[in-house]
Amino acid sequence: NNLLKIQNEDLSIKLQRTETILSRVKEELSHFRATNGRNPRFNFDEEQQLNCKLKETEEERLQLAQKLLGLCTSILKAAGITRPSNISLSVAEEALEQLKNRITSLGRELQDVKFKNKITSERIRLSELKPQPSPSPNRVSQSETPNRVSQTPFLSALDR
Asked: Which residues form a coiled coil (predicted)?
């Protein structure tokens, strides 16, 4: 029984020493946190939540970086660069700008082709509307022939 009492007292003394050491460590921690501009009280739950949020944010950042890399690769492939040696945002932006310029140029070419097609269709329509020349030369006046000739160079000049 005495032996148990002595062991109990020893454990109580060790517990008191440990509590004293723990309180000193807590004081040092709060002092350290205060000098670093943090709240002197340490909240383990809050710290754990913040660490979880930090990990989630880092994972999202990594996923976004991977998506950006994939997007840059796709842009470079669309620009005709099949084996990009250095995939970077600036190279992809430059390729994207070139693609934009190419699309604008192709749009203009498309408008030109549509306009030329419209001119050709109008020429065909006009040629169908022209009266067929009759076999008798008396009905055709001399003044109509130069008009037809003068219209053709005008339209062919627009066609070019």
From this structure: 8-116
